[in-house]
Write a structure and sequence with these properties.
By secondary structure, the protein is an alpha/beta fold. About 40% of the residues lie in helices and about 15% in strands. The chain has a five-stranded parallel beta sheet with strand order 3-2-1-4-5. Strand 4, helix 7 and strand 5 form a beta-alpha-beta unit. The longest helix has 14 residues.
């Protein structure tokens, strides 16, 4: 069975790292699948810095630096650089679809990586599912862990 590629934008990482109510549990589903070898989580190198302080959220303090750095070094993570091609694709997403520039970097990176889905909690991005990319990119919230069956 092939490994599924799932893109996480900064919002998904922050939901997990800050243990945000309603978000961390959903993120746990993707992380459990990643730890089981079913999923690789793809993100932009932009996320490493952006996740430290998202708009309308408290910053992650420096005393948690090693925790954050170790998290991005997990074997189930794949980081993609912000290249000129990605940046120019992001420009097109801003102009053609009204996506904010940082979000456009994430979407362009997800499209370049040919992921099966982009997971986010950003309402603006969630509205763009099936609208951007060829084939159209699935944009969704992370999926909660599957319930275990009773034996």
């Amino acid at each position: 069975m092939p490994v599924e590629l799932i893109y996480w934008d900064s919002d998904a990482f922050l939901g997990w790292l800050q243990s945000e109510a309603g978000k961390a549990q959903l993120c746990e589903g993707t992380l459990m699948r990643a730890d089981a070898g079913e999923v690789l989580i793809v993100t932009s190198t932009l996320t490493i810095a952006e996740v430290l302080w998202m708009r309308n959220a408290p910053p992650i303090p420096k005393d948690k630096a090693e925790i954050v750095r170790r998290f991005f070094r997990r074997s189930c993570m794949r980081l993609r650089n912000v290249t000129r091609v990605v940046s120019e694709s992001a420009q097109e997403l801003v102009w053609d679809h009204g996506i904010r520039p940082k979000d456009a970097i994430h979407v362009a990176t997800a499209l370049e990586a040919k992921v099966q889905a982009l997971e986010t909690f950003d309402d603006g991005l969630l509205k763009k599912t099936g609208v951007v990319g060829i084939p159209p990119l699935l944009i969704r919230k992370p999926i909660a862990p599957a319930q275990r069956k009773l034996l």
